Amino acid sequence: QVQLVESGGGLVQPGGSLRLSCEVSGSTLNSYAIGWFRQAPGKAREAVSSISSLDESTYYADSVRGRFTISRDNDKKTAYLEMNRLKPEDTAVYYCAAAPGRIRITTAEIMAKVIWMFWGQGTQVTVSS
Questions:
Q1: pLDDT, tens digit, for every residue of 113-125?
Q2: Non-local CB neighbours of 41 within 8 Å, separated by 6+ positions
Q3: Beta carbons of 68 and 84 less than 8 angstroms apart
Q4: Whose CA is closest to 106, among 72, 58, 46?
Q5: SS3 label, residue 109
Q6: From 13, 37, 42, 71, which residue has the greatest number of CB atoms within 10 Å?
Q7: What phi, psi does 30 have (nearest 5°)?
């Protein structure tokens, strides 16, 4: 059974940075596309970013493009979300998810159609002064 565990969340001031980690167990990481999602209180879950399994193509939501960077280390079985220039509106619980297969995600439309089979438990990110 594939398990995902997020870490790295916390409280940060506006303009600050955090790096989230998503550690995968139970399988090799290179078999999966990895996505990051977030959900703020009272709001729908939002797709933030993804990195493909096929060629490591990346996708970013407009709200985070240029500030967030997704990456993966298949040897360490860990994916990362580097978040810079954080804003109060980035406050949410952040989840990573894994989708099996050779998937290339480059647009919001493709991102919405992917079946994210495995999810982590989430890590809280709070951006506040």
A1: 999 999 999 999 9
A2: none
A3: yes
A4: 58
A5: helix
A6: 37
A7: -70, -5
